[in-house]
Amino acid sequence: MNPGQAALGGFIHDLRASELPAAVMHQARRCLLDLIGVAAAGTGTGMSRILRDHAHELSGHARIASRLMFDGRSVGASHAALVNAGTIDSLDGHDGHRQTKGHAGAAILPAVLAFIDQTTGQTVEEMLTALVIGYEIALRAGLALHRTAADYHSSGAWNAIGAAAVGARLLGLGHDATLDALGIAEFSAPRGPMMRSIAHPTMVKDSTAWGAEAGVSAAFLASRGFTGAPAELLTNAPEARDLGSRWLITEQYFKPYPVCRWAHPAIQAAQTLIGEGLGGPATDNIASVEVITFDAATRLHTTAPTTTEQAQYSLPFSLAAAIVHGNVKAEHVLTPQDQNAVLELAAKVRLTASPAITNDFPALRRARVVISYKDGRVQSTPLTQADGDPEAPLADPALTAKYRANTSALGHERSISIADLVFSSQDEDTSALTDLLMAPVGPASAAAAAS
Q1: Dihedrals φ, ψ of 148, to 5°?
Q2: Together in a domain, 90 and 193
């Protein structure tokens, strides 16, 4: 075993919660709360319903099982990771990382749950430590992949490796088996072409569901002696040399709106105009809207989305929703075909790529909005970078308000209880939290869970 491999295995297995800086542990709690909220809201999507029924039919009541979030049914652990990751990914409101241009947490939390649900002896503190390990490994694999690969791959291509690291930790694998798990995950992770998914939005999304499943399966296979070649994205990679000293989880952004992050600068820019009286009946007088932004954001060009996936990857629709409603909420993207005023305005939106703004991407993601009115008036915004990045983070009250909105269907008491456990628990067993996360929502879900 070379020094790089030894350091990698040592980080995965030897890291203790007491060694984590307070800011890192607090960020882990923030990530956990945000992912839970997005998962709760995501159960209302068609993508989540299809995945949950699919997993139950294929692997319901498996011997090594985990429950489906906010559903209650038990399925094979790797299928549970697939479904829970897909449920989070189905509503594009989860945290992400600018330089990887993707998402770690949407796969890492489902991986953690796949190994700790319906088990005893794990504390919330250990759950959070495993979450941190998964983020740190996944994000470094993502950075290495972007450095070494010509194409822009989906998040599943690299967050699978973080999911495998979580499994190695929670299964207590030896160092050799740990390296096998990472290698199996890297080899089997879905290297999906991300820009194709953006050009043609469907339920494959960011391939995170399959990344989570691949990572969880890799850890279970390694525990049985299945071998894998070294994970080249991490073995001796420069990105892995600062494990334990630089905490990439603190560089996560959080989304105020449940749409692609690339649309957020334009949405926030429009908010400044809304404050000046734009919105409501005033939108009838709009002749055109121009968004000047980075090239990748102009690929979010669908103007008349008919599905949730198309709406989340549509800058014109997202911006129009912000102007018409003053905000972008889950309800807007769940039924875009019913948003007549939004669709009418979205048809007037033009996207323009700026070479200067593009040159700063992905470190900076900015946009300027110009609105022309039928009466000849023109309103223009400054060049805007969206809130939620590490330099302008969403404060805890704002993040909690987002969580409360996403978990409204759970009822006040259950929503508050989950948040209290996330932010306050330490030595408590995880079962109180996981029971709240897995219990069905509403009578229909309860009946399905009992079947």
Answers
A1: -105, -20
A2: yes
